[in-house]
Every structure is written in C-alpha cells, then in structure tokens.
UniProtKB/TrEMBL annotation, chains A, B:
This is Glycolate oxidase. Its cofactor is FAD. Belongs to the FAD-binding oxidoreductase/transferase type 4 family. The keyword Cytoplasm does not apply. It comes from the Bacteria. The gene is dld. The keyword Flavoprotein applies. Signal peptide: none annotated. It comes from Planobispora siamensis. GO terms for molecular function: FAD binding; oxidoreductase activity. PROSITE patterns: FAD_PCMH. Keywords: FAD, Flavoprotein, Oxidoreductase. Residues 38-217 form the FAD-binding PCMH-type domain.
Length: 456, 456
C-alpha cells in the first residue's frame, strides 16, 4: 500500500472535509466502550455523507485491500468497532436523516447514523413505536443496532432488532450498492440476506440505509411490579417462576446491590433502602390479573417486599436507575461486561455460579440483567491500575462464558462477539459451524476488507 | 455416475427397506402441488429414519455429485420439491417425532416430518401455541414449513415461520451434521445461519431437527368480524383503511365470489348468499372497541353488510370455508397459484390490476388473500386440457408478478420461489443480489448437490 496514492484515491471518493487524518481525532474514533479490547492504528477516518460516498470509499479500499472498520456511535461493548492496523475508519454517524415515516404501512426508512431515541421520538409523533431499546438508546445508532442485532429491555416480549429490520441498503464486498429484504409485511423471494447482515458486526458489508417495521404505540397504562430480594439467587428463582407461570411481562429487569449502591453514590436516589436485589417487572396489556400474578411469583419466590402500581413517574425513576447502573459502575474503574444468556429456568443456577466465581477469585461482580430473557450482564469491576486484579477479572470473564455454554446458553445475548467474545463464541459453536461462517465471509467479502479479525 | 455402484453405496447408508426404486412410487414423490412446474426423473427415493442416515445419504450423493431433493409432505405450491433428473428424493416425512416440549422455556424440538397441526395439538396440551398456520397445516410438515418460511392466516399479527425457529440441526454441503441457532430467548453468537437456512428451500442443506419458540395459548375469546362487499376493490379499500387506522387484527382474510361458489358447489355451505366478496377479520385481544373499529372500517369502505360475534362455531365455519377454497377450485381444473405481496395501502390497486388482467386475457381468476398482510393469492383456474387457455394463464401469471414488483411488492409472500417464481424473483432482486445468492450457495454447497435449479 502506498499511503499517499491511497489518500489521493480517497480524496476522489469524497470531499476533503470528510477525510480526517489528525492522529488524535483518529485515536478518539478507534475504539468502542469495551474495556481492554485491543485497538489498532487507522490510516484515515472518513465521514461519508451519502451511500454513494460509502460505495466509493469501499471501492478504493477494496482495490488496495485496506481494511474498512464501520462505526456508529461507538457504544458497543465487545470491541466490534475497534480499529485494526492500517484500516480506514468509516464513521456513519453523520448520515443521520430519517428519510421516510409511513404511518399506514407502519415502517420507517432511515440512514444508519440516526440515533435510536431520535427514531423513537419521531415515529411516536405518528402514533407509532420502534420497540428495540438498548440501554444505549440515547446515543447508539440504528446502523450500529442493526450491525449488532441490539436487544434491550422490551425484547422479553417484543423481540430484538432483527425482528424489526425489513430491508437494508448495503455496500457489498464487490463494491456494489444493493437493496436486501423488502418493504412489504411478508416476503420469501430468495435467501434472507437482510437478516444475515443484521448482527454480522460489519464483517460482510456496510449498511447504508435501514427500513424498519413499526408497531402501534401501546395504548394501555403499563403496570410496574417491583420485588426486593435478599439474595441474587432468590431473585433468580422469581425469574424462573415467572417463566414457568407463562407470564409475559414487557420488561423483567434485575439490578443488584452493587449497582444500586453505585447509582446512589452518584445520584443519591435512595435505592439501597429498597433492598439488596430488585426485580423490575412491567405488564403492558392492561391486565391487572397478570400484574397480580407476576407479583405473586415474586412473593412466592421469597421477596422481602413487593409492590405494583400504575404511577408512571415512579416507574420511570426505577427503570432509569437500571439504565444508570452501567455508567455509575464505570466511575469506579474499568468494567468488563458480560452478556451471557441462559435458559430462563437456569437463571438461579447461573447467578449462583457467578457469585461463586466472584468469591473464589476475589473480584467484584455487579449484576444487571434482562432477567426475563435469561440475558445476564455480570459486570466485573476492577480498581483502575490494578494489573493483578485485571488478570483475575479476565480469568473470571472466560469462566463465566464457559458456564453459560455448559448450561445450554450462549456467550452473547445481545452485545455481539467483536473481539472480546471470540474464544467463547468459537467454543460455543464449534469448528464445523465456524467453517460455515468463514465460507460465508469469503463468499461475500472475497477481498477480506470488512472489519477483519472480528467474530472470526 | 454408475447407478449400480451408487445404489450399493446408498445401501450402506441406510437399511434396504428405506430405499425405494419402484418407478411408480418414485413418480408419486416427484412433485409438489404446483401446477405445470416441470419435474425430472429421480434415480432413487430414500426415507431415512434418523439424522445420521440423512448425513450418510448426503455423503454418498456428494461423492458422486448426485442431486439431493429434500421433501416433506409435498404441499408446496412453487415446485420447490419437484424431482430433478438423476436426483435422490430425500423424503423426511417418516422422521416425525416430537422430541421435546419444554413448557417453562416455551419451546419444542421436533423432527422435520412432524405435521404442523400435530405440533399445534401436542403443545396445546401444555397450554402453549405454535402460531404459524399455513392453510396446509393438516398435512404440511414443520421441516417443509421451515424450508419455505411458511406463513398463514395469523401472520398478520404473529409473524411467519422464521420468527419461531430458534435453532436447527442440518446436514451441510460438506457432509457434517451441525447445530445452528440456539435454545435461549436471545443470542448473537455469530451469523444468523438458522435464519438463513429457513426459507432456503433445501438449496443450502437438509434440515434434520427444528427447535421452535412457542407462545402461551391465547386466553381471550376471539371476536370475528365479517364484511360483505360487492366488489374486490371495495374489499381492498377496507383492507387499506384497516391498515391506516392502525388496527392489528390477528387475521384479515379475503375470499371472493369464485371461491365462495366453488366451496358451495362442493360442500353446499350457503356462502354465496352472504355476498360477492367477504372479508373475515379476527381480533384476539378481547378488546371490543377494536373489534368495533374494524367493523367500522368495513362499513366506511362500503360493506353491503357486516357483523361481529364471539360465536366460535360460526367463526370456524367461515374460516374453514377460506381453507377449503383452494381444494374446491382444484376440482374445476388446474390452478396456477399466485402469492404476490404488496404494501397494504396498494391492495385495492393490485386487486384492480388482477381483475383487468382476467378480463383482458379471458382467464378465470379467483381470489383468496391474507389481505391484512397485503399477501394476495389470485388463483388462475384453467379448464383441464385447454392448451390455449393454459398459455394465456401463464402470460397472466407473469404479468401479475411484474405488477407486484412495480407496486413495490414481492413476487412471493410465503410460498417460495421454487421453479415457478424464478423469473419473477430474478426480476425483483436484480443481478447484483442474485450474485450474492450464488456466492452463498457455492460457499455452503460447493458440490452443488442440494436441490439444484431451484431459486437460482
């Protein structure tokens, strides 16, 4: 590769103002929020304004086999957006226009840089709802959400990003700008290539436009059900009981004492007075009997206290405490974020194993969880600069992944593989399935330029 | 290829009783229900009893590059299961065991030959529900449903087969038996290979086991809303109005006068007295106001009469008339089945175009539709033996596909591409996207043995 000639070729692909070579700015765009995931050195950062500019950048990179690392807001937690050596960082956050909201067909068409909450607010004005709600929704982009198949709080009832992506426009490994998927409610004309690109973490191409399916904005006042437990495993038993009872909450979140304390220390919300471990449930059907049944599950599993209400302000305070848990913990030191997902009946067992690892290895593990999905986020918090603790934390990180696999679960429920979960994912799927991944990667990205070294 | 040596190799792969060489039996298994789709001559029919036997058969075929054509119940409508010359027909209907129903995790694990209605009945005994309900549900298999990503009546609210497939066991093109997907509620460990195999019509591998997600059996008594219209386009306007009103029925079916008459001629149900074109809606939330709103949409769009009730028997009679429409029409002559899907607001325009084609070309077109999805099934009925009419029918068939594409729709909403929709699908997706299909096909089926000539 000849850097000068290459930069000249880039300059023909998009305006000079859209090419950034300042090392500090490049460094600031060279990683996501995953602690300790390695990052490489980029040769350029580009900020295209259109799909055509993305296509031109990919063509230039393809010619010289320069790696392309696409990124949205950089809120990922697995290192998927981290720079690799010699790459072009393709920042899509500037392509942030909502192109269309079709109320009658219940769909929206957006550029990849549209922020999740912005889309939600815009469609709410039409009485519509875009359900996927990762905790990063105030900052993360729909492009990044699609690339990682992001989840969130309401997934337990409403599904994940892939369930809402109808169609994509992508730049392919052969440099074409193509449309995958559809605008209609149903369609089986060929392979589900849009679904394949969702969750592929930028390794198969670059997403330049997304068509999402929308639901009607819920009309019922949601009921919030809160239960306080004196142990993690006790709360886990309530989760298993809820699943066994066939209750379908629209949220079932767990927040433990470490998180409550961290949020209190930061925002003084008085959460630690509520209990050691909280379960926050929501029933959005307007069915008072189901809300009572959920509270009954909490009580029968040994809740210290429980309550239910339709008070929106109170509910918002509790759910925002859950959202604040992660940034509150980050104030205490680097956080190694897990994302395992296990069968719901095994949530108590998985939580018990996590607690044992914390004790055995002498590390602090805080727990938040999309508990109703069996999707747990044990957060391993390490004092800044303590290298020995860091080594122990990394050992626990891998041990928890192995436990999830042993319980029939997965190493990543919603954050993606990126760099941090590669060993775990390979252990989970096995060599034969990894070979299928490699075959697809080679087929769609023959030059191997898209986000190399991620996932596989 | 040496037939004798090849048959000997097959005999090592599975018991002699599972290999059928009788030409009549082979011929009877050489096609699905798609009228006029070409069929080839198979060299053998095999009926494996286990995934391991499927693997062994594929290995034998792979060695000699003998095409493998998998089939379930043969109820497909696009020719996807039709024999190609020199193929082995791989009949999976004998692998029909339900391996597991897990009430707490709300999932079931089944072999591919389990009939859709059998699964629905079995899980209902546990208070659970498998939503996808193609009209073929009394006969079609879950394996075939997964291979074609089958839809049905309740898709308008509950989605299609892919939305319920969590994991698959498949035999790959390199002869391995692998597991794709997961058992947990969420998971993003690698590419969505299970989703890619769903709807791939047997062209990427053979499905030997399916893990499906289940819902809780609905508890509310559904409300049935019926509207009679004096024209197809009038009924289409009611469909568009329903979409615009943001109503979410759990079924919204259209049946026209040709179908009503055909069912009456066969079963004497007195349907023709009800009106020219019927819309059958269902609201399953227990929300009387929403049921009234749906009826209001029918009335405002010009319904001749309308009614709503919670009478289960009455509702069952009407919906069974809709299911009987297709076999009733088949009694009148060969039926060329369309499966276009258009944006819901364009249902009236698409129906008007279909009517014009019928008039212009002098062909009989009956209409049934999953109208709420925009998924229309114009059925072109031809008098048996009338070759001239057949030519006109085939011309109209292609013209309707082109109209669907022109309206931003798809040539196939739920039946699949098979053989009949190849030209239409290629016109819909374009050469660049077709190239992506070919690349994936080559990557996963390097020997090109799986259902060659279908889709691409």
């Amino acid at each position: 590769m000849l850097p000068v000639r290459f930069i000249e070729a880039l300059s023909a692909a998009l305006p000079a103002s859209r090419i950034v070579l300042d090392p500090d700015v490049m460094a600031a765009h060279s990683r996501d929020q995953a602690a300790w995931a390695p990052e490489g050195r980029a040769v350029a950062l580009v900020r295209p304004e259109s799909a055509e500019q993305v296509r031109a950048v990919v063509a230039v990179c393809g010619e010289d086999r320069v790696p392309v690392v696409p990124r949205g807001a950089g809120t990922g937690l697995s290192g998927g957006a981290n720079a690799v050596d010699g790459c072009v960082l393709l920042a899509l956050d500037g392509m942030d226009r909502i192109l269309e909201i079709d109320r009658d067909e219940q769909l929206a068409v957006v550029q990849p840089g549209v922020v999740n909450d912005s889309l939600r607010a815009a469609v709410a004005g039409h009485g519509l709802w875009y359900p996927p709600d990762p905790a990063s929704s105030p900052w993360s982009t729909i492009g990044g959400n699609a690339a990682t198949n992001a989840g969130g709080v309401c997934c337990v009832k409403y599904g994940v990003t892939r369930d809402y992506v109808l169609g994509l426009q992508v730049v392919t490994g052969t440099g074409e700008l193509v449309r995958l998927g559809r605008r209609t409610r149903k369609g089986v004309a060929g392979y589900d290539l849009a679904g394949l690109f969702v969750g592929s973490e930028g390794t198969l191409g670059v997403i330049t436009e997304i068509t999402v399916r929308l639901l009607r904005l819920p009309r019922e006042t949601p009921r919030t059900i809160v239960g306080a437990f004196d142990s993690l495993v006790g709360a886990g038993r309530a989760v298993a009981a809820t699943a066994a009872a066939g209750i379908t909450p629209s949220a079932l979140e767990l927040v433990d004492r470490y998180c409550l304390r961290a949020v209190d220390d930061w925002r003084n919300m008085g959460l630690t007075d509520l209990g050691d471990v909280l379960l926050l449930g929501r029933i959005d059907t307007g069915d008072e009997l189901e809300a009572a049944a959920l509270q009954g599950c909490f009580d029968a599993a040994g809740a210290v206290w429980s309550t239910r209400s339709t008070d929106a302000e109170e509910a918002e305070a509790l759910f925002s405490a859950r959202r604040l848990a992660y940034p509150a913990l980050e104030r205490l030191g680097p956080v190694l974020t897990e994302d395992v997902c296990v069968p719901r009946g095994l949530v108590p067992e998985m939580l018990a194993r996590i607690e044992r690892h914390a004790e055995t290895h002498g590390v602090h593990i805080a727990n938040i969880a999309h508990a109703g999905d069996g999707n747990l986020h044990p957060l391993i918090v390490v004092p800044a600069g303590d290298d020995e603790a860091r080594t122990r934390a990394q050992r626990v990180f891998e041990a928890i992944l192995d436990d999830a696999i042993a319980l029939g679960g997965t190493v990543t429920g919603e954050h993606g593989v990126g760099l941090l979960k590669k060993r775990g994912m390979h252990a989970e799927v096995g060599e034969d399935v990894l070979a299928l991944h490699r075959a697809i990667k080679s087929a769609l990205d023959p030059a191997g330029i898209f986000n190399p070294g991620k996932i596989i």
